[in-house]
Amino acid sequence: RWVCIIRKGAIMIPEIVEQLQKQLQQQTEQCSHQKSHHQDADYITWSWVCTKLLKLLSKYPSGVTPAIILSELYQELQNSGGRLPTTSIKSRKRVTVSSVLDLKTLAYESVLEVCAQSPYEIPGTTTRIVHLAECEDDTRYIEMYLHKKFYDMSCILTSHSLRMTCCRLVPEMVTRARGGRRPSLRLLPTEVVVIVLDPAEGHQYQNSFLPLEHLQLGCITQPDYIQNIFAKVIDIGSEEVVHTPDGTAFNRLIVQLLGHARSGETTPLILWDQYVGFARLFDKGDMLYLEQPYAKPTSDGHLCLEHGPATVMYVVPFEPSQEVVPSQHPNQQTPIRVKKMDDGKLNFASYPERLMITDIVPNMISGVLFAQCLRVHRKELVVEDDGAIVEKYKLLIADQTGSIILCTLDPGFRTFERVHRNQPTRQRQHVCIRFNPPSGRLCDVLLN
What we know:
Elements: H1 2-8, H2 13-35, H3 46-59, H4 66-79, H5 89-93, E1 94-95, H6 97-103, E2 111-116, E3 120-121, E4 128-133, E5 141-145, H7 154-158, E6 161-164, E7 169-175, E8 181-187, E9 193-196, H8 199-205, E10 210-211, E11 224-225, E12 229-236, E13 240-243, E14 249-258, E15 266-272, E16 287-291, E17 294-297, E18 303-306, E19 312-316, E20 321-325, E21 336-340, E22 346-347, E23 364-365, E24 368-376, E25 380-383, E26 389-399, E27 402-409, E28 429-435, E29 443-447
Parallel strand pairs: 1-2, 5-8, 9-19, 10-12, 15-18, 22-23
Antiparallel strand pairs: 2-4, 2-6, 3-4, 4-5, 6-9, 7-8, 11-17, 12-14, 12-16, 13-14, 14-15, 16-19, 17-18, 20-21, 21-22, 24-26, 24-28, 25-26, 26-27, 28-29
C-alpha cells in the first residue's frame, strides 16, 4: 500500500505522483478521443496530482491501495467536467456537442461554445431552428429552437462563436427529407447567450459602443434602456437569494465592471433570476459589450446596470500574456509557458512538471513545492496595515536541487505545531507547499 511506503520514506511521493500523472493523462486522452476528435484533453499537472494525493492519504489514514487512489482522482476529474480545477469558471462547466449527442444528457449549468449555421423555419410555422456544431466544418451538430430575441441577428450569430448556458435538452420525432420520422435531440430556446469577439473585432465594436467611464450619469434620471456600452469585468460575485418585504424571493448575482480606470471605481451589473447564468459565460478580465443595457440611478448619485429582455451581450475574452520558463527535462521540445498577469506575476497553476527549489523565481504565484523541512524557526508576530496581528514563520526547506528559507503568514489550523523546531535529521518531515492559495495568504502547507 502506498500509504505504508510513504510513511517509511516520503521521498517516494514524487515518483508515485509522476506515475499517477501519467496514468491519469492516458485515461483522460483516451476518453477525450473517444468522445470527440475535436476535443483536446487538458494536461494534468504534477502539482494537482500531488496535492490531491496528500489529501487522499489524510482521508484514508489506515491505508489505501493504488487502484483506489487512481479511481478517486479520475472521478474528481470527471466531476469537474474532465477539466482541472485551476482553469476558468466556464472551462470547468464546458461541454461539447459531441458529448451531448453521445451521452444524450445536458446539465442546466453546462456551458456550450459552438458555431451556428443559418437558421431555417419549420414549415407552416414561424419557429426557427439553428444547427449548433463545435466548428464550422463539423458534421456532428445538434438542433436548437432559436430564441425570438435573435431572429434579426442571423448574420452576427453565424459569423461568431457563441457561448450559451441554461439549455434544456428534449427528445423529438423529426420528419426525414425522404419521408418517415426519426428520433432526434433538440435544445429548447435560451436567451442566456453571449457572442464571442476576438480582440480585433472588439476594437471595431468600440466605434458603436461607449466606454462605461464616458457615460453621462446626469442624463439618466429614471430606469431605462441606455446606449451601448463596454467595460472590463473586475469581479464576479456569488449567487444569493434576495427577499422583498412582500415575501417574494429572487436570485441575484452582481458583476463588478470597471467604471473609471483612474480611480478604480466600479459599477455593478446586476443579474436577476434567469439571467444569473450569464456569469458562467465570462471571466474576470474579459471585456463585456452590452447592447441596450438597462440602467437604474441610485439614491447616492451612482448607477447600476441590469441585463434586461432587450439586452444583448458580447464578450472579448481576456488573453493574458505568457512567458517561457525552463523545463526540468533537457529533451523537452515544446517550450513551457506560464501566464503573466497584469501586475507582472507569473501564474504557475498550469506548470506541468514538478517544481523544484531552483525553479523559484520572483513574482511566482500558484506554484506547488514538495520539499523536506529542515528547520522551523520561532514564530514572529507581524502587524499588518489594517492593524491585524498575524503569525509569521520561517522554514528552511530543501530538495535535491538546493535549499531556501520560506516565510509564511498565518498558515491556519496550527499546521506548524506538527513541525518541531530543531528536530533531528531522522525525524525531518516533508511538506507540500502551495504558493498564493485561494485564502489569499502567501502559502498553505500540507504535511504528509
